[in-house]
Amino acid sequence: MANLNVPLYxxxxxxxxxxxxxxxxxxxxxxxxxxxxxxxTTKDATLVVVNSVCGCAARNARPAATLALQHARRPARLLTxxxxxxADATERxxxxxxxxxxxxxxxxxxxxxxxxxxxxxxxxxxxxxxxxAADLTAAFDRYCA
Length: 145
Hints:
Shape: globular
Radius of gyration: 14 Å
CATH architecture: 3-Layer(aba) Sandwich
Organism: Candidatus Segetimicrobium genomatis
CATH superfamily: Glutaredoxin
Protein name: BrxA/BrxB family bacilliredoxin
Pfam families: Disulph_isomer
InterPro entries: BrxB/BrxA (IPR009474)
Family: Belongs to the bacilliredoxin family.
């Protein structure tokens, strides 16, 4: 049986990808307990980004999140897990994405403790960061105070 706790990529190589989200205010969750502590209890509008090494989609997902957060309306909480690095935390975060299969990257917006909006890899891959950000800001306008 595979050990989910062993990172797929050298942690030094993915650190800049982690930093791209944490420096704009995302809280990184690295264990299932950390995920449950926040997603299992918060009622605040919360954006969860499943970060990823995948160059074809993640290269625009992170900049899209940065652009979207410049919008007047935005979630109160910003969370991230890293697929392929913190597998247990990622699996737990995805367990809250009711009705959606795992994908990397992936962005889910929660309000009042329930998932209200999802961008899957298929909604991200091949699209410009500005277009992805527009999808996010439309959801922020609808669900964030």
